[in-house]
Each structure stands twice: as C-alpha cells, then as structure tokens.
Amino acid sequence: MLRLPRFGIVTPTRVEDAVAALATPGARVVAGGTDLLPNLKHRLDAPPVLVSLARLPLGHVTRDGASIVIGAGVTLAALAEHPLIAAEMPSLARAAGLVASPILRNLGTLGGNLCLDTRCRYVNQTEGWREALGRCLKSGGDRCHVVPGGQTCVAALSSDCAPVLVSLDAEVVLHGPAGRRVVPLEALYRADGVAHLTRAPDELLVEVRVPVAPGPRLAAYVKWTVRKSIDFPLISVALRFDLDAEGVDGRIVGASIVAGALASTPRRVRKTEALHGLRLADPATADAVARLAGAQLKPLDNVPYDAVYRRRMIPVHVRRAVAALAAGAS
Amino acid sequence: MDDVVLLRFTLNDAPVEVAAPAHWTLLEVLRYRLDQIGTKQGCDKGDCGACTVQLDGRAVPSCLVLAATVQGRDVRTVEGLRGPALHPLFDALDGAVAAQCGFCTPGIVMAADALLRKVGRPVTAAEVAEGLAGNLCRCTGYQKIVEAVVAASERSEARRG
User: What is the C-alpha separation between B111 and B108, in angstroms, rounded?
Assistant: First the structure.
C-alpha cells in the first residue's frame, strides 16, 4: 500500500488565486495528478500544500487565427479525440492518445504532460529502494548512478506530447504574479534533470499555442514501449515534414525531428536540411531520415532497457514511421 | 489551505457528505470512510486499474484522484451498477467465466461500462482491448474478459433493438 504524505490542499476557481497560492514555499501544482501523486507516494517530494487545478477553466480548444489554442487543463483523452486536433495536427492527437492508458488519459492533462517530472530508473522507486543504493543527484545525494562521476542529473523527460509540440513550434503561456508571458515550448526545458523546467515556482502553465501548418505537411509520432500501454516511452520521436505539394509525392522543404525520453529536454535532430528535396514516396527517404536520427540520438541507461539496444532500435522505429507515413497510415 | 476537507458529492446516485484528510485519495475515502470495498486497492500508482471508478461518467483510477477534487461531482463505483435487473456486463462476465481470482473484476467492469456507454453500439474485440488497456488481470484471463465485454455490448444492443 502506497500512501500520500500529509499536505494541505487548495482548489481555486480562478487562475489568479492559483498563482497566489503558489507563493507558499514548496507548494506544488497538481492537475490530473497521474505523475505527481505516484511520485509523492514514492516520497520524491514532500510539499506542504498542493494547488489543484481541477476547478480552473482551462479546458478550451479553439482556433485563433493561424494557431490552435489549447487550455492546459484539456485532458489527454479529450485532446486525442478532438476533431480540430485530429484534422490540423494528427501527430499531436496520436501522441496524446498513446500516453499511458485510457483511464490515465481521462485524468492526465496536456499541461501536466508538458510539466511531467523527469524520470530515471534509479529515482522512480520506493524510498527503501533508493536508500539501499545510495541517494543520487535527483534524490538529494551527490552522485549519478547512470553516468559515473556525472555532476548533472540526466533523468529523462518522458512526455509524449513535448517532442511533438516542439516539432510543431508550439509556444506556452505562463501566468505568474506579474501577468502572462509567452515562451517557445523548447525554452520551457533545460538540461538538468533535477530542475528541468524554466517555469518559476509561482508560475502556472495555462495555455499551449500551436501554429497551424501554413502549407502541405505530414507528421508522425513514434513511441516504443515494453508493453503496448501504460509504460513510459523507451523511444520517443516526433517527425514533421513540410512539403512543396500535398501527398507523399511532395518534396520536403522543411523537416523537424525531435526526440524525447533521452534527457531532461526534448532533443532536436540537427542538419535536417539534408532531407530537403527528398520525397516521402521514395523508399530511400525513410532510410535517410532513420540514418540522420540514429546518428544523433544517443540513449543513456536512465530509463528501463539497455541503452545500446534502445540506440539500435531508434533508426528501426524511425524508418518504420516514415514508411508508414509514405504508405498513408500514420 | 485545508488540512481536512468536507466533501459533498454524488455516489451511486445518492448524495454523500464525508470529511477526509486533504492528502487522501478518492480510493481511500471510498474504502475507509464509506465502506465501498468493491473498489479494490492494487498498485496504488495508476498502473493496474483495480481501483477504477467512474468520475462524471469517465473511467479513472481512484488511487490517483485527490478526494478534495471530487467536490460536487458524480462518482460511480461497482456497487452503483446494481439495478432491478442484472447488469449485462455482470451476466456476460459470469457466463464467460471471465473472473478467476476476481480482484481486477470491479475495475474492469467500471472501465468496460464506461467504454460501452461511450461507444453506444456493439464493440469489437480490438476496441475492448484498447479500452481496457489500463486494467491488468494478473491471472491473465484477458481473452475471456474481452469476449464477455463484446457479448455484453451485443446483448445490450439486442435489448434496445
């Protein structure tokens, strides 16, 4: 039996009240609770108070000019099934629909998925397990069990939506005591598994803005897990190809490849210009994309499964995903 | 900030009022305050689905729902599927001998009932497999469970038909 530590709770109905409540030192935000509550049950933190977003009006999905605006409180189930998302950004719908399991997607929210705590095989364990091995950087100790001698925590961001939304150039709206600021989603993350969010402790992620594709585009999300549901990704890659014409015969004029589950930030594959001019209908394109991703994406032993195996499987899954896009079955 | 919350919500169509510590989950309130022990406590971290209940009609793991957040909402547990006639899912699961140790069954029933209401027509085995993907059966009796849910949906359709 895993029980929560003691804490107080506030359940505000206005964003301003939630932000004010976050002024309490150590206060934590809880949206769906599917990430925070298991972590608290494992004693990874002991906040004095939780600020629940359950009653905030953050459940909107609307079109605003050339962007789709998604409230941070939209559940992953609602996101996966929303007709506007399915039509305009299928890779996001796909990623949201692959998070955990149906019952968890009914609770988990988009904002929560983007603010997911980083995970590591040496951290996300019961307290006794962690103590037995010795505390690591992320659990208050001074060593890293993944990278011997490492001084920076390499716990991984396991969000399925984050790599996809980075690949789609999304922005997030943060609401703090001084008002709202808009930052690229990519800038929400930093390379430190202990403190991987640039969100201030008294800021709330309230909204996600995603630009609609200005021209023809094909996009996909690759997720590989041990079991077909529930598990966090072992491989997580978002693919986006902007084309000069509709369909798989269009030539690539812009490409974005972003991987999750490697480090505390989504990782962009560089030099995607090398793919420009290729056609998805050409079988060699899948190989080119797989080679490019495989050469740059290097898993560590921070999440379950052997890192070497995960590394070798990245090009395999990327190649399959591009081939599926080309076959019209994303 | 509240250390103790006074909750008023609807449980199986009846209003309830109950006080609970702020750090309690809905699962704990159901089992240890309201004696609704049909809802099972399994992994306690959302992996197994044994504690699945319906919150405003949607299947959720009650071990990850903070009790304070169900204020004013509608909660249904396996006890709430009792009616004048046997629920088609109970009948079908019984008929297919789809419960072995039975520990996962209440959660499966609540997830399956939410799925059948959402789909609103006879479901396919693939839809059931996906809909129940968050509910583990460690006796691994999945085949019979899936068959039973499909059969229940067909029976419900015939009854409506």
Answer: 5
The DSSP annotation for A45-99 comes to ---SEEEE-TTSS---EEEETTEEEEETT-BHHHHHH-HHHHHH-HHHHHHHHHS
From A300's Cα to the closest Cα of chain B, the distance in A is 24
The answer to whether residues A171 and A209 touch, using CB atoms and an 8 Å cutoff, is yes
Tell me, what's the ipTM?
A: 0.96
Q: Do A8 and B61 touch (CB under 8 A)?
A: no
Q: Say which amino acid occupies B83.
A: G
* Three-state secondary structure of B108-139: HHHHHHHHHHHHCCCCCHHHHHHHCCCCCCCC
pLDDT-derived band of residue B1, with 50, 70 and 90 as boundaries? confident
CATH 1.10.620.20 fits B83-160, yes or no: no
As a whole number, mean pLDDT of residues B55-77 equals: 98
Strand partners, A52: A30
Distance from CA of A236 to the nearest CA of B (A): 20
Sign of the Cα torsion B130, B131, B133, B136 reads negative
CA atoms of B144 and A292, how far apart (whole Å): 45
Residue ranges per structural domain of chain B: 4-80, 83-160
pLDDT value for B161: 62
What residues in chain A have per-residue pLDDT under 50? 330
The predicted model gives B36-64 an average pLDDT of: 97
- Using the Cβ of B124 and the Cβ atoms of chain A, whether some distance falls under 8 Å is answered with no
Cβ neighbours of residue A329 closer than 8 Å, sequence gap 6 or more = none
Give me the architecture of the A217-326 domain, per CATH: 2-Layer Sandwich (3.30)
Among A4, A103, A119, the residue to mutate for chain B (most B Cβ within 10 A) = A103
Question: Which residues are CB-neighbours of B79 under 8 A, at least 6 positions away?
Answer: B12, B36, B38
pLDDT of residue A330: 46
Question: Any CB–CB contact under 8 A between B59 and chain A?
Answer: yes
Laid out side by side, the sheet with A49-52 consists of: A8-10, A49-52, A28-30
Q: What is residue A248's predicted lDDT score, i.e. its pLDDT?
A: 93
What DSSP state is assigned to residue A136?
A: B
Triad B68, B72, B75: Cα angle to 5°:
85
CATH of B4-80, one of 1.10.150.170, 3.10.20.30, 3.40.50.300, 1.10.10.10: 3.10.20.30
